[in-house]
Amino acid sequence: MTELVAEFASVVEGRELGGDVSRGASAARVYKQLTKQRSDNATSGVLFGAEGAQQRHDGKWWQSESDTWDLLARLYEQRQQRRDVAMDDNMDASTDDDATLSDFVRAQDLLERDGQLAEYVEVRRWLEDTAREFQPVETRKGYLFYTRRSIRTQDTADSNAMSDTTQLVTDIDPDASSRQRRDIAIEDHEYTTSLLRTLFEYVRRGRMSDAMALCVESDEPWRAASMKGGLFWRDPQLEDAESTDRVGGNINRNLWKHACAALAHDTGNDSYERALYAALSGRVDEVLTVCVTWNDFVWAHVNAVIEMRMDHGLRGACVYEQAPATSFAHVQSRRTCATDMAQVFDIVESLDGCVQNEARDPLRRLQRALATNTFAEYVEEFAQALSPETDVRMVRVVAHASLCVRQSGAELPEPAVSAVLEAYVDRLARDHDELVAAYVAQMPTERQTHVYAQFVQMLNVSRDHRMQLLQRAERHGLDTHAVCRAATLAGVQPDDLLDSSDPSDSSDPSDQFELSEPSEPITNTEQRQVRALEWTTSSSHLYPYALAQACTLSRHFLLRGRTNAATVLLNSLPADFVQPEWITESTPLFREYMHILSLCDALAFYASWAETVCRQPTDKLQSFEHKQRTIDATVRMEQLLRRVLDVDWLGTHVQDGEDCTELQKLRLLYVPEVVFRLHGVLYETRDFVPQNLARSLELAQMVAGDGLGIYRELAQKSPMHPNGRLVAFMALMRKSAFELLRVQESASDNRVAPV
């Protein structure tokens, strides 16, 4: 199945290169060959048991699908040709009322004028070509060989010895049995029955020449002559000189059809002989008695419709006077003949048993839609009935059939076609994501971006594989930049991005807020959201959009306290992400990005600083190295934290537009946190850097200053801090002041000299 999916896709990709207007029918023929190969493989070397039953079932499906593609190619090529002829201003005039033409020419002209009748003829040919295989009777020379031998024996032998042959005919001619009301030899009767069945099966399959050849080779040429009466009359004097050079056909074809109907009506004839002449005359009564499959029943009715419409179309002006057929009034058909293709299928679907079950087969329903030229309605119904349980094979067939029909110039409802293609794309995405772009490119332009973006943003594959999918999309003419923007937007803003416990749900941060540890792994959802930015970082032209989405997603992470996720996000951006013009222009969005980056850097380094400070040395050498490392780490830590505060982190010069509220919440959450951590860094390293104790106390001046307005964030109340955080900050200042006094007193005591 995998190989077939790829082969079908290669046909779709080839059609995109353009070509003649019949490329839809050409593609259908390729699909026919591909599925025919699967059918042949499934029916060769059939296994036994359950595996063999499944193999036969698969072979039946592939054969039916191959027949469907054959029907589509036949009909839509003919419909396309008819549209082309209709647009030709130089069309020949109709010969409908020209009484100086032969029946053959008039019949040809009728098929050219009546497109529906021409389609019916093509459907009949298709039904004939796709009929099940049968074993024809062998050719036997010598007419009624065993009956003839019995008659000769009866003439020369004693009358007492011939008592068992007295019921045999005494003459050897086709009418002897009915005339003498006697039988022929049992061996001849069996052969005649098999011969008549073979003749019907040949006619059923459109192999009239084979049927007549069998009659001649079996020394029954009159049967060939009786079947040949259906040929339309031709006369070189009434036709083009190049079309024919001899008179042929049956000038009294209508009379011949009535004679055939009489033979079919005669209950004394063999059932297959009756069916044979019923088929030739366009009757259905006797043909239906020997029909077995859905294909047989449809053929019987379509054949009758064609003959009826032919008779009606050829009625009227004629160069000769037709022979009367009034004596055959008693052989009229008992059944009401269908008048169009839709009625044919309605009649067949109303039958009981296995034929009705076969008519309900999904491929049979599709074949009906193609034959009745109602494929547009079929696609709409199919699209409405789509569900996860829909057979993936039918989704594939209908999707490609829609493309073929549309490529042939027929109009189809675009929403329905798009729905079917999207269903097929959804199934391809599971195992054949490299083929999706070819089918998305067949959708309306306004749907392409949305569908392909939804497809790619759900893929959990490597970045290299994602870039390959973008290259395929570009090769098929998709707007890759629009796809990348839509994929990123869908990835970073799923429906579950925010919940009721999110601090952004209210005007104040939630009391559930808790900072994550830098080493804590991010969740699968966060990882998917971070990777969504890969689409817009695939091209430098999309970096401005990626910047906006990176800030949006970072804000959502930080509002949850997921600083680790925000750090992973910022570290995932390309090395050349920051563009020179961003630095020059210094827009609010870029300043927000730099502020968030500085916060994440500071918080990420804080864990490293804390680990360094807490590490206990074991000897004097390690003690010296530990002190130096602590001093260096403290200097770096202080720089990072002060950088966050000194730039008025996410202050009014950054707050702009709809994101202003979120930025204010972030300031309320993180500015106090940075102040407290800066105090902790300075206070806890007072033994390593003595002046840090006094500097920790100097933070009060920075907080109280109007320039940065940090005191406002400390004083603001929130669910987590109903009284604000200014009291906690003053407690830290008190702690530093007392410790500074203690240190100063200790230093004064140490300076007092002993007496």
Keywords:
755 residues, mainly alpha, 0% strand, rod-shaped
End-to-end span in angstroms? 103 Å
How many DSSP E strands?
0
| Main sheet record | none
Question: Helix coverage percent of residues?
Answer: 55-70%
Structural class: mainly alpha
Shape: rod-shaped
Counting DSSP H or I runs of 4 or more residues, the number of helices is 34
**Percentage of residues in DSSP E strands:** under 5%
Mean pLDDT: 86
Low-confidence stretches: 16-21, 158-163, 495-510
From the alpha carbons, calculate the radius of gyration and give it in angstroms: 45 Å
Please describe what this structure looks like.
This protein has 755 residues and is mainly α. Helix content is 64%, strand content 0%. Helix 1 (2-15) packs antiparallel against helix 2 (23-43) and helix 18 packs across helix 20.
